[in-house]
């Protein structure tokens, strides 16, 4: 068995706390959601090339949390994405297929500024108790 260990520096080189895959219905690609210390949820498209290796492309940056994001999960239907963080908030996100993605670059601090290719909106916010 051959194993390849991935090194991920996608969240400003901060720890990634959670990830989840959403499989496309036709099996062509997989959407990957990642979350971590940098307070953002990032979405990626993961394709498998003819050589069997994975290729990862940035899709979108979801920035509503004010503290570290501990968990991201797609709903069983794949229609919604939930993110929960240290700010005692859970956001339910939905892809806006009719809305154009924002054209302002994300990752301003990083060398490679990227544009969002998808537009996601919060459809529900759940706030918890802060002790």
TrEMBL record:
Its main location: nucleus. GO terms for cellular component: CAF-1 complex; nucleus. SMART domains: WD40. GO terms for biological process: DNA repair; DNA replication; DNA replication-dependent chromatin assembly; nucleosome assembly. This is Chromatin assembly factor 1 subunit B. The keyword DNA repair applies. SUPFAM superfamilies: WD40 repeat-like (SSF50978). Keywords: Cell cycle, Chaperone, Chromatin regulator, DNA damage, DNA repair, DNA replication, Nucleus, Repeat, WD repeat. Pfam families: Beta-prop_CAF1B_HIR1. Residues 1-131 form the CAF1B/HIR1 beta-propeller domain. Acts as a component of the histone chaperone complex chromatin assembly factor 1 (CAF-1), which assembles histone octamers onto DNA during replication and repair. CAF-1 performs the first step of the nucleosome assembly process, bringing newly synthesized histones H3 and H4 to replicating DNA; histones H2A/H2B can bind to this chromatin precursor subsequent to DNA replication to complete the histone octamer. The keyword Ion transport does not apply. Belongs to the WD repeat HIR1 family. WD repeats lie at residues 62-103.
């Amino acid at each position: 068995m051959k194993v390849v260990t991935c090194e991920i520096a996608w969240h400003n080189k901060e720890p990634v706390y959670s990830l989840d895959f959403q499989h496309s219905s036709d099996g062509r690609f997989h959407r990957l959601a990642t979350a971590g210390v940098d307070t953002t949820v990032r979405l990626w498209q993961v394709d498998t090339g003819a050589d069997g290796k994975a290729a990862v492309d940035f899709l979108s940056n979801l920035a509503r949390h004010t503290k570290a994001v501990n968990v991201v999960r797609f709903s069983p239907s794949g229609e919604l994405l939930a993110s929960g963080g240290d700010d005692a908030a859970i956001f339910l996100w939905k892809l806006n297929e009719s809305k154009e993605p924002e054209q302002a670059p994300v990752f301003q601090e990083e060398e490679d500024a990227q544009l969002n290719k998808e537009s996601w909106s919060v459809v529900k916010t759940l706030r918890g108790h802060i002790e």
